[in-house]
Design goal:
Elements: H1 3-16, H2 21-26, H3 36-54, E1 91-94, H4 96-99, E2 121-122, E3 125-126, E4 151-155, E5 161-173, E6 191-198, E7 204-205, E8 209-210, H5 217-229, H6 237-251, E9 255-261, E10 271-282, E11 299-306, H7 317-328
Parallel strand pairs: 1-4, 5-10
Antiparallel strand pairs: 2-3, 5-6, 5-8, 6-7, 6-11, 9-10
């Protein structure tokens, strides 16, 4: 088993041994086992491939986002790069906006040559993956660590290889008019999280964004939350100062929920999204919960949303929220 499979085997083990949503979907036989050792053995050997495939569904959607272009369709059995697939003929696509060469985009390696430090820090740009080392194809371009997507190039992503993002999951308890916590059907307290509605596809999502070159993750988390959920871009300097104080109080302490590959519909064979998702919880409901939400930047809506397994939400965000519910002992 290579390093990538080992990584996902461990992640798979953590989720399936606790009876997660993925367990119910896959219906693995490991649910009958009683020891963690047995569970680990079976999860790593028998179930890793199915989990990797489940993590790579939206990245193989029929139509590439913001276009009418159809991907070359890749069946589950052909996702992995080490599976021989001589008929594979991915569509070559990089958006015009990316090809214009904005500051956040790399040179077009399909038409020019440039020195890139793969799997490392390249100047201020991190080309290292949270997943471990990724391989290069015969064209000397990074290969998506999960597998084929049906599209070659960068799509609408700026970087070759991993495109790093950060997702702040800000939560509070749902309370009634008497300020008592509200319980769900399972008898557990209900959590709420700040959700924003994306302007590109109108889907609800966690208010995250891209990590700027040389930027510390915590800076990204605070900046993106302020811009998307509080519309800090249109605030006066005094309002920004007050917002900064309020956000800083809750953002001092967070619990990392996930670090790795994101099943994003923008992913291609050579460019993919990765994120670090961190939960910031307002236990008393007297902190950031009291700040008025106002959609800004590339969000068209924002609200406190009940955290539930029935949510239909962008990319892999449902898995992040499930982990938050588990950590907080909340209703799911």
């Amino acid at each position: 088993m290579d390093n990538m499979h080992g990584y996902f085997g461990d992640l798979y083990l953590k989720r399936h041994c606790m009876g997660s949503r993925a367990t119910r979907l896959a219906k693995p036989t490991i649910a009958k086992m009683t020891t963690e050792g047995e569970c680990a053995k079976h999860a790593k050997i028998q179930r890793v491939d199915s989990f990797l495939t489940r993590l790579h569904v939206k990245a193989r959607g029929e139509i590439y986002p913001r276009t009418q272009m159809k991907r070359f369709q890749v069946e589950d059995k052909y996702v992995k790069w080490d599976v021989d697939y001589p008929e594979y003929d991915p569509v070559v696509y990089t958006s015009e906006g990316v090809l214009k060469g904005p500051v956040w985009a790399d040179p077009d390696l399909l038409t020019t040559t440039a020195e890139m430090k793969w799997n490392a820090l390249d100047g201020k740009v991190s080309r290292a993956s949270h997943m471990g080392s990724y391989n290069l194809g015969n064209d000397n371009l990074p290969r998506n660590p999960i597998g084929r997507t049906g599209v070659k190039g960068r799509g609408c992503l700026g970087r070759w290889g991993p495109n790093h993002a950060a997702d702040p999951i800000v939560t509070r308890w749902l309370r009634d008019v008497d300020n008592k916590k509200v319980k769900g059907e399972d008898g557990k307290d209900i959590l709420q999280f700040v959700a924003v509605q994306r302007s590109d596809n109108k889907q609800w999502a966690i208010p995250g964004g891209m990590v700027d070159p040389g930027e510390v993750i915590t800076q990204t988390l605070k900046r993106e939350f302020g811009e998307e959920a509080m519309n800090s871009l249109e605030m006066s300097e005094k309002e920004k100062e007050n917002l900064e104080k309020a956000i800083s109080n809750i953002f001092q302490h967070g619990d990392e929920v996930y670090r790795g590959y994101v099943d994003d519909p923008r992913n291609t064979d050579n460019s993919w999204m990765e994120t670090v998702a961190i939960n910031f919880h307002d236990e008393s409901g007297t902190g950031v919960s009291q700040i008025k939400l106002h959609a800004g930047d590339d969000a068209v809506g924002v609200k406190w949303m009940d955290l539930t397994s029935k949510l239909e939400i962008y990319a892999s965000h449902i898995d992040f929220l499930q982990e938050v519910a588990r950590k907080r002992g909340a209703s799911w």
